[in-house]
Amino acid sequence: MHLKSSRPALAPAGLRSNVLFWGILVVPENSTNATGRRRQLLSIAALFILLAMPSAAHDIITTKLTYAREISRIFSRRCVSCHGANSSVPLTSYQEVRPWAVGIKEQVLARSMPPWGAEKGFGDLSPDQGLTQEEIFIIAAWVVGGAPQGDAALLVRDQQTAQTPSHGRLRLSDALLVSTRTVLPKPLTVAGIRPRCETELDSSRITAHLPDGRIEPLVWLYRYNPRWDQVFQFRRALRLPRGTIIEASSPVRYYLETITAPSLLR
């Protein structure tokens, strides 16, 4: 059955006539035309069938970005450590990723995925699991452009999760619990920040104001969920002198973390 949809047609003023409205034939109330009523019922039934049927149309492809060449590599580095083959939402193949494409785009644009909880570029963190602006743009543009699969020969062969530097395996210890702001009573070598939130934190920038006037950005917590229990480790630990002010831009409790590896000091 072939259905032709049209925009609502306007009848001339004062004239009652049959009007085709989005594929439904509207018959005047005073019509006694049995054929017209049958056509109306058939049109309504056909419309319901059309709405119930899955769309057979293909997405219009407007991008040269593909899952095989670009997206699979980003997901391999950033996503499969949590969304592997045995996870509740695996994202290891095009067939697994494609149904979630729009949701993935929305999540990465909101920086909700991957769950990291810190703004990129504020503080020198390592490892930094947040997506780069380029990666976010590529994912969003791929989805908007129709999410094409591409040539399977270009797929990433080995899943590569983000690598943690050797010092990332060292244990950090809680040196000082800070409630929004503190002044260091003695020198302290700080290697990271561990938030201690009870509820999700929208945004808070933590900085160190040194006595000589320098300001050291430490971490910008953004949409941080306490369930993650994340430790934001610095690429190199910071030697902060006595009198340094550690301060957050909005109320939050956090630990200043320390380690003892000399190679991380600066």
Report on this structure:
There is one protein chain. The chain has a 4-stranded antiparallel sheet, with no helix packed on it. A 4-stranded antiparallel sheet has the order 4-9-6-7, with no helix packed on it. Strands 1-2 form a two-stranded antiparallel sheet. The chain has 5 helices and 10 strands. The chain has 3 domains: 1-57, no CATH class; 67-163, no CATH class; 171-264, Jelly Rolls, CATH 2.60.120.230. It is elongated, with a radius of gyration of 29 Å. It has helices at residues 34-52, 67-78, 94-97, 101-109, 133-144; strands at residues 19-21, 24-26, 173-179, 181-183, 188-195, 201-209, 215-224, 232-240, 245-248, 253-258. With 266 residues, the protein is an alpha+beta fold.
Please tag this protein with its features.
four-stranded antiparallel β-sheet; alpha+beta; disordered N terminus; 5 helices; single chain; 10 strands; 21% helix; 3 domains; disordered C terminus; Jelly Rolls; 266 residues
Helix residue percentage: 10-25%
Structural class: alpha+beta
**Beta-strand percent range:** 15-25%
Quaternary structure state of the chains depicted:
single chain
Separation, N- and C-terminal Cα atoms: 75 Å
Taking pLDDT < 50 over at least 5 consecutive residues as the criterion, the unreliable ranges are 1-29, 161-168, 262-266
- Compute the number of helices: 5
Order of helices and strands: EEHHHHHEEEEEEEE
* Radius of gyration, taken over Cα atoms and rounded to an integer in Å: 29 Å
So what's the overall shape?
A: elongated
Q: Largest sheet, if any?
A: 4 strands, antiparallel
- Overall mean pLDDT score? 79
Q: Order of strands in the sheet with the most strands?
A: 3-10-5-8
